[in-house]
Structure of G-protein coupled receptors family 1 profile domain-containing protein:
Amino acid sequence: MYLVAVVENVTILTMVKLERSLHQPMYFFLCMLAVIDLVLSTSTIPKLLTVFWFGACHVDLDTCLTQMFFIHCFVTVESGIFLALDFDHYVAICDPLCHTSMLTHAVVGRLGLAALLHGVLYIGPLPLMIHLRLPLYRTQIIAHSYCEYMAVVTLACSDTTVNNLYGMGIGFLVLILDLLAITASYVMIFRAVMGLATPEVRLQTLGTCSSHICAILVFYIPIVVSSLTHCFGHHVPPHIHILLANFYLLIPPILNPIVYAVHTKQIRERLLHILRSGAQPK
């Protein structure tokens, strides 16, 4: 699954770089998603494979906290990029005449930087709070495939109330605010679509949005389910917690490129052109 995710996301990045017709805001945001998915999977899977293959189970605290920061930071950044993609669709559908002038390359870069800062500022305190407030641990065995925040906090001997409240508060704040903004924009998008002239145009426009909606569901559903089981699923077996936590780092990097390649005409046609060129005899 890791190799498939790497190949798919590198393919998306290469196609957008080589094909000038794809140098548009939507595809730049897709490149940002591809980079984030590569960071998320690469920050966890290689270490996980060394555990399976070589029994290299040890990880020091600083490395653990660094991995934790990258995982939770880039999950938050990915949520911000989905919100930016949603804004791109909203402008393209509801105000198409202003799309090019409003979403210039500089604006796209600023939106990407804002999503990155959004992740760094929210998640930066998490490893610091563990390092400064939780010096002693009951055990050194993390019941997870990687250094997941709540899995590390539950090992501490001292009071973890502040860490728990901040971690859960940030998680639900990011999820709820981003999902509310995405939902509100899609309500306005669907209202605009219903006002289009013909059913054919409506279906074509909805088809453009369908890939984005599928990617949002693939990203948010595993995170929401995993968060809810952590908070309320005290009787859920540990292996279910671990499986759900693995899902939201493995499934989106694999499915995002597939969803956008299948539903986005320009990417699909460019990919088919590359495959046909490679299959032709020299």
In short: Residues 41 and 249 are 6 Å apart (CA to CA). The longest helix spans residues 61-94.
